[in-house]
Amino acid sequence: MTAHLYDLVLADGRRLSPYCWAAKLALAHKGVTLETTPTRFVDISTVAGGGFKTVPVTEIDGATIGDSFALALHLEKTRPDAPALFGGESAVALTRGVAAQGAYLLGKMSRPMVLAIHDALDAETQGYFRASREKMFRHTLEEVAANPDASVAAAKDAMTPLRILLRGQPFLGGDAPLFADFLIAGLFQWARVVGAVDYLAGEERIGPWFGRLEERYGETLAATRG
Amino acid sequence: MTAHLYDLVLADGRRLSPYCWAAKLALAHKGVTLETTPTRFVDISTVAGGGFKTVPVTEIDGATIGDSFALALHLEKTRPDAPALFGGESAVALTRGVAAQGAYLLGKMSRPMVLAIHDALDAETQGYFRASREKMFRHTLEEVAANPDASVAAAKDAMTPLRILLRGQPFLGGDAPLFADFLIAGLFQWARVVGAVDYLAGEERIGPWFGRLEERYGETLAATRG
């Protein structure tokens, strides 16, 4: 069957959300074909019958799943013969740690990107984005975006554990990618789509890791406009 | 059988190394009784027949294992009926990520602690410690220890993923601790033994998590002088 994912977009249709990218990589990993509906921030609450506040929202197997981690758990349970996304209960718990690491990185990586994201949204969505992000950061977008060099340096510093890990193994999941890889790859893909900061530039461990994911999921990652 | 661990000490016998603490927690988790030999930094190369550069060095089951992660893998393989330290191959790979996160945290947490550690070593060991750490940090210990408030704040910031994770589950390993918990707990125990910075103060998620580990491994964690 084909899954259906409501995919967050910028005004020109570019697919934005790191969590949507993680979900799309997880679906590709399990061999599930996918259709997407471009969805603006301000339309999230209206999709799939309503009731969802965040993306991805995914319709699959007769269910509607409003979270990328929950989708990955669903895929693991329903597609046990496809390559693993976790590989056991302990791995699920440990992948929650990677998700927490990803949330931290998201905050760091987003600072020098927020104005570029804002400027790439339509006028109605800009109002929502500015209000919600200024509440989240407790500063104006202009204040958050100030000192981009320092913000980029802080984000790069926060990637240190990833660099250390990739010295010793090709993927976060070991010899093959797991959902942990997709959670972090989603962030780099999000940054790449926005284009304001090239976080992969000069990354001798992280760059090749992302390249290995592109070798496996090139079609998914190339679909930056769906 | 009883395992034997060469345990890094300060001049007054306090047990220092975060990786030794992780190893001791892993041994306790698997129900292995333990004897320790207090070992100074400058004596590491002479223990267990020589050839080791770092601690913990552990003699167990007729083998000598010179790394806490390798020890945990050995325990998991040889004691499959005791509580798990990993829980499968994927979990091993993901725990390497926690170890990388721990190495990053170690660097951050150590900055405001380095002079206190130096001052608590005997004169011979102080020389080794200063030379090796100044090479590592590429600054004098006094420079590394400058601006302790900023260093503590940076270390606290780097603990953010741990705080996020512990909102949703009691241990890094989920409902029960895994080696991932011990890798991080070793850092907080190390800081507690040194006493220069109280990293658990005011930590509403991390403090109770460490308390839950103390409930389970209180005897191990109380043996700060062996």
Automatic annotation (TrEMBL), chains A, B:
Signal peptide residue numbers: none
Annotated organism of origin: Methylopila turkensis
Cross-referenced PROSITE patterns: GST_NTER (PS50404)
Name this polypeptide is given: Glutathione S-transferase
InterPro entries per record: Glutathione-S-Trfase_C_sf (IPR036282), Glutathione_S-Trfase_N (IPR004045), GST_UstS-like_C (IPR054416), Thioredoxin-like_sf (IPR036249)
Domain GST N-terminal: 7-83
Pfam families documented for this protein: GST_C_7 (PF22041), GST_N_2 (PF13409)
